[in-house]
Specification:
heterodimer; A: mainly beta; 6-stranded mixed β-sheet; 4-stranded antiparallel β-sheet; globular; B: mainly beta; 7-stranded mixed β-sheet; 11 strands; 0% helix
Chain lengths: 112, 116
């Protein structure tokens, strides 16, 4: 059936290209940020996190960049693969709080 | 690899009925959470639970909602009298410690609740 609610922005890339997914967060007091990947019919899966005292963190094929000045977070995926196709959410939280505030999400579509 | 499990995977109920969604968090985790995701929308926090009590809840988590850890393994979300707008995917999550120490929240596969 058709989806209702917010229309997700979609990023379409060719297999092997690098992908950059962006997120603007709302709370200047947020000090911990996480990127989650959600495949169809599954729960969010942790990809990478970053604390506000850092501006860059690298994982395996993924890099997160944090710009606190403009409250912007990005996820870079190197050599994107078909298995990377999913919806990607950024999430934020402020110190001492255990709730994650999720962003609206971006759909990544990887084409062979 | 340990994982969070949820049952049932899909629950269909009539408006006004009570539902209980069940979760088994990862065994050594101490913090438990419920989130929901209305179809096509973002994931929303409902409640966090630690040391047998609610540590934080959102405005969505009104008197119709309750959580319980009835034994050493299960964590449940009860909706007392379901409404049409409760239809959503409900995710349970758990973490070893709180987010203040960078602790990852592991999410279950979700229960799709459909209220007719």
């Amino acid at each position: 059936g058709e989806s209702v609610g917010l229309h997700l922005p979609t990023l379409s890339v060719q297999e092997g290209d690098n992908s950059i997914i962006n997120c603007a967060y709302s709370n200047s007091a947020s000090d911990y940020f996480i990127w989650y990947k959600q495949e169809s019919g599954k729960g969010p899966q942790f990809i990478i996190d970053i604390r506000s005292n850092m501006d860059k963190r690298q994982g395996q094929r993924v890099t997160v960049l944090l710009n606190k000045t403009v409250k912007h977070l990005s996820l870079q995926i190197a050599a994107t693969q078909p298995g990377d196709s999913a919806v990607y959410f950024c999430a934020e939280t402020a110190g001492g709080y255990n709730k994650l505030i999720f962003g609206a999400g971006t759909r990544l579509a990887v084409h062979p | 690899e340990p994982e969070v499990t949820q049952t049932p995977s899909h629950q269909v109920t009539q408006m006004g009925q009570e539902v209980i969604l069940r979760c088994v968090p990862i065994s050594n985790h101490l913090y438990f959470y419920w989130y929901r995701q209305i179809l096509g929308q973002k994931v929303e926090f409902l409640v966090s639970f630690y040391n047998n009590e609610i540590s934080e809840k959102s405005e969505i988590f009104d008197d119709q909602f309750s959580v319980e850890r009835p034994d050493g393994s299960n964590f449940t979300l009860k909706i007392r009298s379901t409404k049409l707008e409760d239809s959503a995917m409900y995710f349970c999550a758990s973490s070893e410690a709180g987010l203040a120490v960078n602790n990852e929240q592991f999410f279950g596969p979700g229960t799709r609740l459909t209220v007719l």
